[in-house]
Design goal:
The complex is a heterodimer. By secondary structure, chain A is an alpha+beta fold. Chain A has three domains: 3-218, P-loop containing nucleotide triphosphate hydrolases (Rossmann fold), CATH 3.40.50; 231-313, Translation factors (Elongation Factor Tu (Ef-tu), domain 3), CATH 2.40.30.10; 320-423, Translation factors (Elongation Factor Tu (Ef-tu), domain 3). Chain A has eight helices and 21 strands. In chain A, strands 7, 8, 9, 10, 11, 12, 13 and 14 form an eight-stranded antiparallel β-sheet that branches. In chain A, strands 2-3-1-4-5-6 form a six-stranded mixed β-sheet, with helices on both faces. A six-stranded antiparallel β-barrel of chain A has the order 15-19-17-16-20-21. In chain A, a hairpin with a 4-residue loop joins strand 17 and strand 18. The longest helix of chain A is centred in the middle third of the chain and has 18 residues, at 162-179. The radius of gyration of chain A is 24 Å and the shape is globular. The N and C termini of chain A lie far apart (51 Å). In chain A, 48% of the residues are buried. By secondary structure, chain B is α/β, with parallel strands linked by helices. Chain B folds into two domains: 8-193 and 290-298, HUPs (Rossmann fold); 206-284, no CATH class. In chain B, 31% of the residues lie in helices and 16% in strands. A six-stranded mixed β-sheet of chain B has the order 3-2-1-4-6-5, with helices on both faces. A four-stranded antiparallel beta barrel of chain B has the order 7-8-10-9. The longest helix of chain B is centred in the first third of the chain and has 19 residues, at 8-26. Chain B starts with 7 loop residues before the first helix and ends with a helix. The chains are: A alpha+beta, B alpha/beta. Bound molecules: guanosine-5'-diphosphate. Residues 21, 23-29, 64, 153-154, 156-157, 190-192 of chain A line the site of guanosine-5'-diphosphate.
């Protein structure tokens, strides 16, 4: 192998995106096409979907079949859960959270969106911006996905008409404004035929922008993480108990915010003690600097009693440390959220018991209006709630930091994850 | 200007290390499933990094089908002693001898399926509450929806319709008595990522992964390693070829690639040019399109 291409591969960036669209808008076809065109589909997989397409009596190979996962779903012809797909180009490696539209939709999209840098929203050119498009944009914004790509799909069915594209774009800009979304890109495509997906289409001379793949290969990711406020939730204390490292005491964790260097001042929460970073270790080496999302081990100048769930922070900009917390929640369980009910909340490496003090309002995600007179929060509902925890959490608003601003809610009886919360 | 970005391998590494540390923190008695293949070697390497300079705080569990490549066993023992971890072996042969498992017969007889019972037994007798595995979501369709923290009921079964939603990197490892978890730190890696990582980190692999001469035979469109206990069909004959293994597991179902690659770079070049998935070279997945899914439901990795 020429070492150039080995090196090139090693320089790739990781981009995580999620797909949203109503049933039949073409999500599976678009993903199938990306996998196919980037040669992420192997011969044996291709043979399998050729067989499956024939079995269904379809003439052409149905690329959408590539992304249909489990057998039960295949049999019912639906997809019901988040599936992850992978492909790479020489510039980036992509992780797709494929969240198919169905009853469980909100739950799936929220799950897929939680780790995404980019939300790809598909719009059927024949239908334009519909209620569900608004819902998808709302969820993408609620989960603070930094970038949105609006794909106006099935352009072949509207004769690649520029006017249709412009109208849909204008309608989406309206949604953008209403929700306060920042970084939105638009691209007219035909997922089925590949127009403007990987290669520029000759049928849209009026469109001078990048193709879909160009876009996701070049979207700037640098500002997607918080590099300003130093946050380090302690995961584990590393005490080797070995001759050679007799006095070693390090704090293992994943950097949740800021740029860390030896010599910096740190404050330990909840104790409030202040000290300095002695060194940052990674797999046997001392490193000069660490930033999100690196997993490292931090050593401190002074010996302080620190354990899992504590947080190391910049003394100059500490997070909130409070027990009364307001958040937006998305509910995942058949059993509705209970006002005054007790739950377990998991936040960074911390786990606390909490009581739901108040359900403030529910959001009608189709009209994006708040509902104050119906407070029954059921499966797939989104609501604003206040909780009180048994001990303080160290948090930022979700808008400021997606790691220190997010929680999951666990049912004490069943241990199931019943909700996801974004701290206000 | 420093752009504060990690390459994808570094980011995947950070994620995997985070997951391993969560397992150490959330469970009382976890283990790492070690098959001897490159994925579990990478897992061992990541575990070493995650807890360094402390030792890896959990034992390795090897489910031994009794049909191993000698080189793989030697490599395993060497690695375990270097890392100073405890090795627990669950033996499929013992399950067969004690009547808990019944050996398959016929040409395609394989002990791969029998591993499930032995694994669940080993988990139960050793009271493991979490087993770290090197499964990747890109390996097979059924795995695409697998969680990092995969909850198993008291029968060790996986219910694809009733998995816990998994958001951000907040992993819920809560369970009732008798239940356990399978945890997959390298879920988001592809086969290519694994090879590139081995290259980037200069990780030692068993010699089987590199080109060597081996007795093999051709069946169902692929070369398989020959071992004396295997039954050949009348038209099949043993030949010596220059090959390497793409994955290493049970001998009976490890496909070989005709290859002269003797460095990681050469292997990577070959893989980049190959048009068959890695699992396509494992005979057991070919049995039915939903083969993997069925075994998962039963409690296979
Ligand atoms: N004409 C046309 N049909 C498309 C296009 N994209 C998808 N389709 C078809 O629309 C149907 C639904 O697509 P699918 O990808 O399964 O939608 P999903 O439900 O969003 O995953 C399939 O029959 C596709 O072949 C397109 O760009 N043009």
């Amino acid at each position: 192998m020429n070492t150039d291409s080995t090196k090139g591969y090693l320089d790739m960036q990781l981009l995580r995106f999620t797909t949203a669209g109503s049933v039949d808008d073409g999500k599976s076809t678009l993903i199938g096409r990306l996998l196919y065109d980037s040669k992420a589909i192997f011969e044996d997989q291709m043979e399998a979907i050729e067989r499956a397409s024939k079995g269904r009596g379809e003439e052409e190979v149905n690329l959408a079949l590539l992304t249909d996962g489990l057998r039960a779903e295949r049999e019912q012809g639906i997809t019901i859960d988040v599936a992850y797909r992978y492909f790479a180009t020489p510039k980036r490696k992509f992780i797709i959270a494929d969240t198919p539209g169905h009853i469980q939709y909100t739950r799936n999209m929220v799950t897929g969106a939680s780790t995404a840098n980019v939300a790809v929203i598909l719009i059927d050119a024949r239908n334009g911006v519909i209620e569900q498009t608004r819902r998808h944009a709302y969820i993408a914004n609620l989960l603070q996905i930094p970038h949105i790509v609006a794909c106006i799909n099935k352009m072949d069915l509207v004769d690649f008409d520029e006017a249709v594209y412009n109208k849909i774009k204008a309608d989406f800009v309206e949604v953008e404004r209403k929700l306060g979304i920042h970084d939105v890109h638009y691209v007219p495509i035909s997922a089925r035929d590949g127009d403007n997906v990987v290669d520029k289409s000759t049928k849209t001379p009026w469109y001078t922008g990048p193709t879909f793949l160009d876009l996701i290969e070049t979207i700037e990711l640098r500002r997607d993480k918080n590099l300003d406020d130093r946050r380090f939730p302690v995961q584990l204390v590393i005490r080797p108990m070995r001759e050679a490292f007799h006095d070693y005491r390090g704090y293992a964790g994943k950097i949740a915010g800021g740029i860390w260097k030896p010599g910096q001042k740190v404050k330990v929460l909840p104790s409030g003690f202040e000290t300095e970073v002695e060194a940052i270790d990674f797999g046997g080496d001392e490193i000069e600097m660490a930033f999100p999302p690196q997993s490292v081990t931090i050593r401190l100048k002074d010996e302080i009693d620190i354990s899992r769930g504590d947080m190391l922070v910049d003394p100059a900009c500490a997070p909130y440390a409070e027990q009364d917390i307001d958040m937006m929640v998305c509910w995942f369980n058949e059993k509705p959220l209970i006002e005054r009910g007790k739950y377990i909340i998991k936040h960074t490496t911390n786990e606390v018991r909490a009581i739901i003090k108040e359900i403030k309002y529910k959001v009608n995600i189709n009209t994006i209006e708040n509902i104050y007179d119906d407070k029954k929060v059921s499966l797939n509902d989104i609501a604003c709630i206040s909780v009180k925890t048994t001990k303080p959490l160290f948090f930022d608003s979700y808008k400021k930091n997606r790691v220190t601003g997010s929680v999951i809610i666990i049912d004490e009886g069943t241990n199931e994850t019943v909700g996801a919360g974004m701290i206000l | 200007m420093e752009d504060f970005s990690l390459n994808h391998l570094k980011e995947l590494e950070a994620e995997a290390i985070f997951v391993m540390r969560e397992v150490a923190a959330q469970f009382e008695n976890p283990c790492l499933l070690f098959s001897g293949g490159k994925d579990s070697i990478v897992m061992a390497y990541l575990a070493k990094k995650a807890f360094f300079p402390a030792r890896i705080p959990f034992p390795f569990l090897h489910i031994d089908t009794g049909h191993n490549f000698v080189e793989a066993l030697e490599f395993r023992d060497q690695l375990v002693s270097e890392l100073g971890v405890k090795l627990v072996v669950g033996s499929v042969q013992e399950s067969i001898d004690s009547g808990k498992a019944v050996e398959e017969s016929g040409y395609n007889a394989s002990r791969n399926k029998l591993q499930t019972g032995t694994l669940l037994d080993a988990i139960e007798t050793n009271k493991f509450d979490a087993a770290l595995g090197g499964g990747r979501r890109d390996e097979e369709k059924a795995r695409a929806k697998e969680r990092f923290f995969s909850h198993r009921d008291e029968f060790g079964q996986w219910d694809p319709k009733n998995q816990r939603p998994e958001l951000w990197h907040l992993f819920n490892g809560k369970k009732h008595i008798g239940e356990h978890f399978r945890v997959f730190p390298i879920s988001n890696w592809t086969e290519m990522d694994v090879w590139q990582y081995i290259y980037q980190e200069n990780i030692t692999l068993p010699s089987l992964y590199y080109t060597h001469q081996r007795e093999c035979f051709f069946r169902d469109g692929q070369w398989l390693a020959y071992a004396p206990f295997m039954k050949l069909k009348p038209n099949e004959k043993v030949e010596v070829h220059t090959v390497r293994c793409r994955t290493i597991g049970d001998i009976t179902c490890t496909g070989l690639t005709l290859s002269h690659a003797d460095t990681i770079e050469e292997i990577i070049t070959e893989i980049a040019a190959t048009r068959v998935t890695e699992r396509g070279s494992r005979a057991d997945d070919k049995r039915s399109e939903a083969a993997m899914e069925d075994r998962k439901k039963e409690g296979y990795f």
